[in-house]
Amino acid sequence: STSERRYSKDSVKARETIKDVSFLVLGRSGPYPQIVLPTGGGYWMDGVSSCTINIDDDIVGCMPTTSSSCARFKLETDDTSHCYKRHFIGREHHDFYAMDNNIGPLVLSVRTETISSQEHFRIMLRTRHGTVHEIVPASALGDRPSASRMARLLCDEVMADRFCPVAFPGGSEMILQYDEHVLTNTYKFGVIYQKFGQSTEEELFGNACRSAAFDEFLGVLGDRVLLKNFKGYRGGLDTQHGQTGTESVYCKFRQREVMFHVSTMLPFTVGDTQQLQRKRHIGNDIVAVVFQEENTPFSPTMIASNFLHAFIVVQPIDSCTEKVRYRVSVTARDDVPFFGPTLPAPSIFRKGQEFRNFLLTKLINAENAAYKSDKFAKLAERTRSSLLDTLYGNLKERAEFYGIPLLETTDSTPHLGLFHSVKKAITGRSRSVSHEMSSAGTRASTLELSSPGRSNGFNRKSVPNAEILSKSSTSSTSDWDGSDNDSVELEHEHEHEHEHEHDSDTGMESMSSTEVPHSNRLSCSFCADGAVVSSHEDEARKLDELLTDVEKLKTEKLDLLRQNVTCKTDIKKLKERQSALAGDLDRANEEIARLRKLLKRPPGNGNDGYVAVHQSLGTDRPPVYVMDVNS
């Protein structure tokens, strides 16, 4: 398989590296470079200097150690995952979804912003290839923007013309959950202890004990914690039965949890040259720290692993003294992009909080950069495709459940913009519903629209897109011309918790729950040629019929309730009768038992209570005694 071939190549490179490192150490005297790249290539390195001078306190003192703080060392994360929560959630925006025959499911998010007194569109497009986030001026989309045009502006491969709105409760939360699936606040890193002259994987994992200098460095990384019943992030270590050791190194850094797999703290198996218990954890990490007790070279191919992509090599200077410093170098695979913070020249740090912040930031950024390598990028694309398919299916299923209609835009009416069309659709729908409710003798709730400052709904007065974005002076009451397949959809904003309203099929307006049941939904349909079909008389008649049916159902419900009460009363009486009969039956059984006992009793001397009856067939037969009921 591919992994086996890769492992075989790594083994060959490891053997070549062992020869190079052994020749380097045995062939000449020090100082030696911290990192030796394999002769076959495949890795890059940073921070390895050919300078062999001794670094004194004056040179180290010139290093920028006073401007420390975490703000100086930036965590390199994908801000696209935060964009939807930061710029869309809680603000007026529109979400759409579509199925493209070329690139698969699409999920689009759009909102308007005013930048330097000019209208702009903030657009997010999610595809199987990733998420694109851009801010474009309204002029880039012409006089009549549409969802399909916005999608093509961000991705040329988009061919879909018909987009459906996410106009139902919970849609934004589903999209947010998809965007944040790549976010993590937990990390695990390996820590490998290398003694002088060690050049093989077996030697690195075979160190049973650690030095005082290594313990001092572990104190910089984090706190030593007991694994038994540990409640924080365990990083795959056993916190119940102690099968992965009794303690480890753990820290919290900038709202993130980090667990270190320290090679000397993991179980040491006597007789196991490969120390699989240790390699099982460190070999499955993506980034590892290599602590060199003395000046000795390290090569990334010493450890055969399909997961390890980056190494931070640290070497102490004057360890266990007040002047302790650390020389730092970095090596990573070629397909891992460069990651910060940038190493200073020379890359030597004093022990302290500054060095700790730099090292932890470098480790986290190294793992985030490794995810962009070929191996992890393919895994991420596979996961992203699966989650996007699931999101599209859930959005489509929820839309069908709520009965969301499709709002279409056309190119033949250039003065109608995206939000202008949405506003017209909502306004026409509100008028139709209001007319129907008034003609039926009921009251329809008004279409309440919130301002952009509010997180829920739309504000009819605050929608500037009808006049600004469409850039047209034509009347907003003109009809639609359906000669194109471009479509726009209306995005649903979450309801206030205190607003007890029942959504119609678009989720944008509500009817009075006290007068019209929420199960009866009214919708304004748009025909293909763009004409708005609204026969108020027919719809009013249908509404009257529905109300009549509701009244009939209410009457039938009351009748059923009465019958239910009557049946319960009858059942209660029958149960009482049953109890009485059961009591009579018990008493009868007792009487029968008593009579049977009397029949079985032998006659006494005085024959008390018995009357002798002589047989008439003969006088020599004994008399038959019969109980005298009068005695």
Automatic annotation (TrEMBL):
What the entry lists under InterPro entries is as follows: Rap/Ran-GAP_sf (IPR035974), Rap/Ran_GAP_dom (IPR000331), Rap1_Ran_GAP (IPR050989)
Q: Which GO terms describe its cellular component?
A: cytoplasm
For biological process, the GO terms are: regulation of small GTPase mediated signal transduction
Which intervals of the chain form a coiled coil?
533-598
Polar residues: bias regions: 430-459, 507-519
Query: Which molecular-function annotations from GO does this UniProt entry contain?
Result: GTPase activator activity
Against SUPFAM superfamilies, the record matches this protein to: Rap/Ran-GAP
Protein's recorded name: Rap-GAP domain-containing protein
